[in-house]
Design goal:
With about 120 residues, the chain is mainly α. It folds into 2 domains: about 60 residues, Winged helix-like DNA-binding domain superfamily/Winged helix DNA-binding domain (Arc Repressor Mutant, subunit A), CATH 1.10.10; about 50 residues, Diphtheria Toxin Repressor, domain 2 (Orthogonal Bundle). Helices cover about 65% and strands about 5% of the residues. The longest helix is centred in the middle third of the chain and has 23 residues.
Length: about 120
C-alpha cells in the first residue's frame, strides 16, 4: 500500500500521541488532527489493512514496525525543517505550518542535503 500525505500525517500523529500516552485511540487522533470520527475511522481502517498500525480489541492503536518507520521519518523531517526555517528567521507558527507542507514532498536527497548543511547528518 502506497501512503498518501494524509496517511503519513495519521502515522505521525499516532507516534506523537504515543510518546505522551501508552494508550492511543482513534478518538484521540481525531481530536489532535481536528478530523471527524468517520474520517478517522476510515483512515485507521486503511492503515490497519495496510499493515501500518494494529488495533487492539480495546481500541488501542499501535504502530507496526513499518508504521513506526514511516512516522519517525515524517516526524524527523517536520522537526528538522521547522527548526531550520526558524533559524532562518521565520516565526515559529509559520515555520511549523510550512514544514508540515514540505515534509511530505521533499526528496530524500534534498532533505539529506539540508541536514548536512545544518550539521544534523
Amino acid at each position: 500500500m502506497v501512503l498518501q500525505e494524509s496517511g503519513e500525517m495519521y502515522l505521525e500523529t499516532i507516534l506523537i500521541l504515543s510518546q505522551k500516552s501508552r494508550f492511543v485511540r482513534a478518538i484521540d487522533v481525531g481530536e489532535a488532527m481536528g478530523f471527524s470520527r468517520p474520517s478517522v475511522s476510515r483512515a485507521v481502517h486503511l492503515l490497519d489493512e495496510g499493515g501500518f498500525i494494529q488495533i487492539a480489541s480495546d481500541g488501542a492503536l499501535t504502530l507496526t514496525d513499518t508504521g513506526r518507520e514511516v512516522a519517525e521519518k515524517i516526524y524527523e523531517r517536520h522537526t528538522v525543517l521547522s527548526n531550520w526555517l526558524i533559524s532562518l528567521g521565520v516565526d515559529a507558527e509559520t515555520a511549523t505550518e510550512d514544514a508540515c507542507k514540505i515534509e511530505h514532498d521533499i526528496s530524500e536527497a534534498s532533505f539529506r542535503a539540508i541536514k548536512k548543511h545544518i550539521g544534523k547528518d
